[in-house]
Structures are given as structure tokens and as C-alpha cells.
Amino acid sequence: MALIKSISGIRGTIGGKAGNNLTPQDIVESTAAFGHWLLSKGAKPKVVIGRDGRISGSIVNELASATLRAMGIDVVDLGLSTTPTVEMAVTMEEAGAGIVITASHNPREWNALKFLNDKGEFISKADGEALLEIIDSGDIEYAGVEELGKVLHDDRYIKRHVKAILDLPYVDAALVKSKKYRVVVDCINSSGSVAMPPLLKALGCEVELLNKKPNGRFAHNPEPLPKHLKDLSREVVELKADLGVAVDPDVDRLAFVCEDGSMFGEEYTLVAVADYILQQQPGNTVSNLSSTRALRDITERHGGQYFASAVGEVNVVTEMKNRNAVIGGEGNGGVIVPGLHYGRDAMAGVAIFLTLLAKSGQTASALKASYPEYHMVKDRIELTPQIDVDGLLKDLENRFKSEDYSTIDGLKIDFADGWVHLRKSNTEPIIRVYAEGQSPEAAQAFADRMKSAALELIG
């Protein structure tokens, strides 16, 4: 059981004792601190709330909503929704902030409160630190009986979200409709079951759903990785479908399965979407340091410039704005389309990808084969608690200083035909090692080389 309070939100397991898990006390305490932070900024006292399909979702939702109202803050409650839908609703409602109730790809016993600013974007590091200070201080004041907030339940935002996607210049709904694609969607028994069907049907697709009950009883590990998508792969082949779609519980991550049952690869979700957008609007791209090099290759192929950010959506968004990027995201299947909103959006990713398929006239597997081939491995360097991790990373930086490297988030070393990214774990005495090469063996060799160098320095 666990409770994690960080600048990116409050996450924990349901049940157990207060202070050690995400209990009603912890939910109220954290929401009240967020409300206090919002009011202290002079922001509009109105918050949009939405949740994924988790078993505990409605309870967390009700507690958070009631707490905000007790502080004199009005609530627009979207109920069962998606993270990107809540993000868009914040600006559409001209609200002061938003709360998304989701633990993303974590198992069903987890839930979380993720906080958005008035732009519908995750709050900054500075705002997150300020919020944690308020939680620790407990200095909260509630409204009197005549100043209590109101709640409006509004379930129309999925429809509005779909319309906004169809209005994107990158989406050719008429062309996609003419193809009459058959698409199988693994909804993981969460919000995908309410968000994906209306979008795909508006695009003229024949839709088959797997795990379609939004009851939070995830049919498999909810992270959309190849090892968890075997049922989807089999269904795509058996139904002779054109595409398989997998989303995580809150529909901000996206992975595709090709018509032959092979994996398109979640790293290549962003690559494909960027490829199409750059054909329409040349410009810069951004992803985090741990994402595939294929995005850089595609960007340069279209005459643009690629930039890397520290890991974390808020960091990607900041860099996208700094570089005026036309597309960006994360290699975990997160696509951020600035023309829609600055947040990962699986729904937008699906619509743009289908437009790319329709215009190219290719199958998903043929499209994947047209991109630079890279393979990634994830490893770790085990350490004792006594080892100075920052010092070790500095020593590794000095050892490889003749290479192209970055220290904006741990240490990333770019070699001619691959890269290695090392990041200190915040919870364990380990260094996480991410490596990419032109084959699985090459990627592992890069990781092994770095592990050997670290162990040699440790002695």
C-alpha cells in the first residue's frame, strides 16, 4: 500500500490507514489544499472534474467535488471522461483549474488526483511545490453556508471533444469514411469505451470493442505494451480488421496493432502522427529524452528541427512552446497536438493516424516498415544506498564527454547509431537505464556498456 505526494499530483492505493494510502482524509486534504492554492491566486473559483472508469473513481470524484464546494468553488463534473477531455473542458468552461481523477496505467487498486491550471495543462513544478507546502501546513479556510459552491453535471464534453478533433485541419473525415475501416479497440474496461466509439463512428469506421464495460475491472495490465495486447492482436487477425487500437484507462496513451497482428509500437505512434503533420505543416518537433530517435530522423527528413525535453508531460509542453513545435509528445504513445490543446490525446492520435493511412493508401504494417528501425531496452544499475548517485552520473559524464550528451534530466549520451539515457530513481537506490539501437542486441549492448562503466567507477 502506498501514498505518493509529488509536484505532479497525489497518487496512492485505496484502503488502509490515512497518511499511508489514498483514503478519504487524504483526498479531502489534498483537494482542499488545491482549492486554497486556486483561490490564493485570485483565479476564477470554478473547477472542472472528470474521472476514468476505476472502481474507486466515483467515490474519489464525490469527495473532491464536495470539498471544493465547501470552499466556495463551483464544480463542473464531467463524470466518466478522459484526461484530454477534461483538459479541453477547462478552457471551454473558462474555469480556474481542473482535476483529473485517474492513476493512468497503474493497476486498479490505485487512484490519483492530477491537477490542471486554467489552461487545462498540468500545473508547473513551482505550483506543485507550493501545493505540497499548503498540504503540509494544513492552513485551509472553508466557506460559510451562504457561500458554498454549486455543482453542474455535464456529460456533453466527449461529444464536444470529438467535434474539435474532426475540425482539425489534419483530419480528413470524408476520406477516412470512404475507406470504411474496420477497427478493433481494447477499452481496458475504462473510459475508452465511452470516448472511442463516437469518434470512430464519426469517421465511418466499423467498430469492434474489447473489454468495453467501464467498470474499472481491468481485463489485463492496463499499460498498453505489446505483452498486454495479445488478445487485441488475435482479434484483429480473426476479424480481418484494418487496425487495432489500445488506450490506457484515461485515454491519453495510444498504441496500434497492425492488420497482420504485429505491433506498430507505442514509440512509433508519435512518429507516424508527426510524419503526417509535418507533411501538412513543416516545423519543429519535441519529445522527451527517453523517446525514440526515429522522431528526430522524420523531423529532419521534412526539413524541421527536433528538440528533446526532460521526461514528464509538463516538460515536453514547456519545450514545445519554447520551440514553437507543430507536434510533440512522449514515446509512451502520448501525442500532443498544439492546434487542439497542450496535452496527450489518444483520440486525436487515432483520427490523425487514420487520415494518414487513408491518404497513403498503405496498410499499417507497410507504413511502419517505411520508418527508421530502432529498438529500445529498459534496464537498471543496482546501487547500495550509500553510493552518491549524482556523483556517479557526473563521473560517467566525464568519461563520455567526447560524445554528444545532455544533462537536463540525468545523463543521456548520443552515439552515432544509438543512445543511452540514465536517470536516478526517486524511490529506489538504482539508476534507470534506457537504451536504443538499430537492433535489440545493439540496444542491449549500449545498456551493458554503460552498466559496466558505472560498476567500474563504483569499484
Automatic annotation (TrEMBL):
Residues 393-450 form the Alpha-D-phosphohexomutase C-terminal domain. Its cofactor is Mg(2+). One of its GO terms (molecular function) is phosphomannomutase activity. SUPFAM superfamilies: Phosphoglucomutase, C-terminal domain, Phosphoglucomutase, first 3 domains. Keywords: Isomerase, Magnesium, Metal-binding, Phosphoprotein. The keyword Flavoprotein does not apply. GO terms for biological process: carbohydrate metabolic process; peptidoglycan biosynthetic process; UDP-N-acetylglucosamine biosynthetic process. Signal peptide: none annotated. Residues 8-138, 167-261, 268-374 form the Alpha-D-phosphohexomutase alpha/beta/alpha domain. GO terms for cellular component: cytosol. Belongs to the phosphohexose mutase family. This is Phosphoglucosamine mutase. It comes from Phaeodactylibacter xiamenensis.
